[in-house]
Amino acid sequence: MQRIIIIAGPSGVGKTTVSNYLNEKYNIPRVITHTTRPMRKGEIQGKSYYFEDDDSFKKLHFFEHVKYGQYQYGSSKEALKHAWDKNDIVSLIVETDGVKSYLDVLGDQVYFIYLAVDDRDVLKKRLVKRGDDPAEIEKRLNSAEFKRDLSLRPELEKNAHILKNNNWQETKSSLDKIISSLRNA
Ligand SMILES: Nc1nc2c(ncn2[C@@H]2O[C@H](COP(=O)(O)OP(=O)(O)O)[C@@H](O)[C@H]2O)c(=O)[nH]1
Ligand SMILES: Nc1ncnc2c1ncn2[C@@H]1O[C@H](COP(=O)(O)OP(=O)(O)O)[C@@H](O)[C@H]1O
């Protein structure tokens, strides 16, 4: 069965780091999504996201799309197929409305990881260390969507595998166990 590991959680929690680890260690490709937000330092067009403007975003054919903070984000069926053509297990980073859309359509094919940290104050510190623009950090931390995604929504609890990303060595070992169980399923 083709599987999709969906990774959600607040900004700075480590979603991209987890997805990159799965790619580097297990060749698990990420479904690249589209956004109208500006590219950050270190991001690459077509690898981090497909960076769009409002007009080009409108022309795309989406599996689902959302407004998050002041920007648009969306994932396409084509991008999912493209990733599944490379490997039967793929990853995808979406916020929690996106998780619901995927669970509704793909059901048991979804392995949903909700990433969390014990101390919320580390999130801002990680965003600063990542080199994000300070004004963008403030806007993000004050957005309704960021506040919402600080905790797991009750309707997603039954589908979620909660993974604490306090300590990267421990997170890697948890991920290794998850991949081993998915491969043997
Ligand atoms: N629903 C949905 N959410 C997305 C998509 N792409 C990214 N996101 C989410 O948009 C939010 C903001 O992403 P981003 O600006 O990269 O910020 P980050 O969380 O700090 O890395 C995150 O919660 C992502 O999971 C998408 O295609 N669909
Ligand atoms: N367990 C961890 N401990 C310390 N720093 C981490 C950990 N996991 C990720 N980071 C760092 O935190 C920052 C935010 O991680 P990132 O994966 O970009 O988060 P997200 O995609 O959820 O916004 C990055 O600079 C990353 O290197």
Please name the defining characteristics of this protein.
185 residues, alpha/beta, Rossmann fold, 4-stranded parallel β-sheet, 8 helices, 8 strands, binds guanosine-5'-diphosphate, binds adenosine-5'-diphosphate
* Topology order in helix (H) and strand (E) letters: EHEEHEEHEHEHHHEH
CATH H-tier superfamily = P-loop containing nucleotide triphosphate hydrolases
What is the overall number of helices? 8
Largest sheet: 4 strands, parallel
CATH topology: Rossmann fold
Overall number of domains: 1
Q: Roughly how much helix do the residues carry, as a percent range?
A: 40-55%
Please report the total strand number as a whole number: 8
The second-level CATH architecture is 3-Layer(aba) Sandwich
Report the uncertain regions: none
User: Which class in CATH terms?
Assistant: Alpha Beta
> Strand percentage, roughly?
15-25%
- What is the averaged pLDDT score? 95
Any overview of this molecule?
By secondary structure, the protein is α/β, with parallel strands linked by helices. It has a single domain, classed as Rossmann fold. Helices cover 43% and strands 22% of the residues. The protein is built from eight helices and eight strands; from the N terminus they run βαββαββαβαβαααβα. Strands 6-1-7-8 form a four-stranded parallel sheet, sandwiched between helices. The chain has a four-stranded mixed sheet with strand order 3-2-5-4. The longest helix has 16 residues. The model has no long low-confidence stretch (mean pLDDT 95). It is an enzyme of class 2 (transferase). One of its GO terms (molecular function) is GMP kinase activity. Its EC number is 2.7.4.8.
